Amino acid sequence: MSQIRKTGLGRGLSALLDDSERIMPVRSVPVTEGVTSPGNIAHIRISQIEVNPFQPRSEFDQASLQELADSIGTQGLIQPITVRKSGSGSYQLISGERRLRASRIAGLIEIPAYIRTANDQQMLEMALIENIQRENLNAIEVALSFQRMIEECNLKQEELSDRVSKNRSTVTNYIRLLRLPPVVQASIRDNNISMGHAKAILGLEEVDKQLYVHKEILKNGLSVRKTEELVRTIQQMGIPKAGTAKVEPVSFQFQKIQDDLASKFATNVRLKVQGKGKGSIEIPFMSDDDLSRILELLDW
Fold first, then answer.
1. pLDDT (tens digit, 9 = 90+) per residue, 162-176?
2. Are residues 218 and 201 in the same domain?
């Protein structure tokens, strides 16, 4: 392992693949020789290759696949896929499903492949890391893949962040997406809302409030900043009741005023903004003495 060199794919993938093609000279051999040692490229019939059961990507863009298939049909497959031997005369894909699918579309009979030795945990890790680094999974697919690695590979979040070369906070933010209602997760998956929107929604604990904000984002095309303002307003005042005047989200400037007042009066001051310069300030008190204290501060 001392010969391994870090690559742009991240430390996790290069370690798992052992960087054998960088260490050993590569030569192409027919699969009938039975060569399975790292560093050699075997030409394997596509019909002998099973898909990776640990593949985290569930959707492939058909137009993009066709473009790759056209390129493969003209230039051939430049980058071999990676497989492991799974039985007599059969192989299981480790990485490169997009290339495999495009090769099928292009009508190839055989495909060049590196043959590796890998257990199920390594299969899952390789498939995940390859896709994150090269294919940009949508946020929900990444979150589900991270969750699978934690559960199936018995990894802690610190270990997972090291495997995929990402900060622990990034890993945590992805996994938190799985706490959102299914309809919100679907919007993230379909790119109808962004990660920024999702993080703002996660500031609310109650499902009904999360769903309300999600609906407002889709209905009014709220930006991430406007969504954050709406979340702050709901945290303070709850969901507006039907038939009441619409309460505008508390802006950054009004939020600062509210925080300063709360600090001055040592109580949870609420600034309600209703638009067109209208609104109210609510200063709650807990007892007669508390009211007297507040009135003194107001020079009443």
1. 877 888 888 899 999
2. yes
Nearest alpha-carbon partner for 32 in 51, 21, 48, 50? 48
Mention every residue, 6+ apart, whose C-beta is less than 8 A from residue 282: 269, 270, 271, 272
Q: What one-letter code names the amino acid at 150?
A: I
Into how many domains does the chain fold?
Answer: 3
Residue 61 and residue 108 share a domain: yes
Domain that holds residue 237: 194-245
Give the 3-state secondary structure of 59-92: CCCHHHHHHHHHHHHHHCCCCCEEEEEEECCEEE
Judge if 15 and 116 occupy the same domain.
yes
From 86, 97, 83, 75, select the one nearest 43 (Cα to Cα).
Answer: 83
Residue 97 annotated as catalytic: yes
- Give SS3 for 113: strand
Q: What is the pLDDT of residues 241-255, one digit of tens each?
A: 765 545 555 566 776
Q: Which of 59, 97, 130, 228 is catalytic?
A: 97
Q: What pTM value is reported for the model?
A: 0.51
Confirm if 76 and 111 have CB atoms less than 8 A apart: no
Residues in the chain predicted with pLDDT less than 50, given as ranges, are 1-38, 245
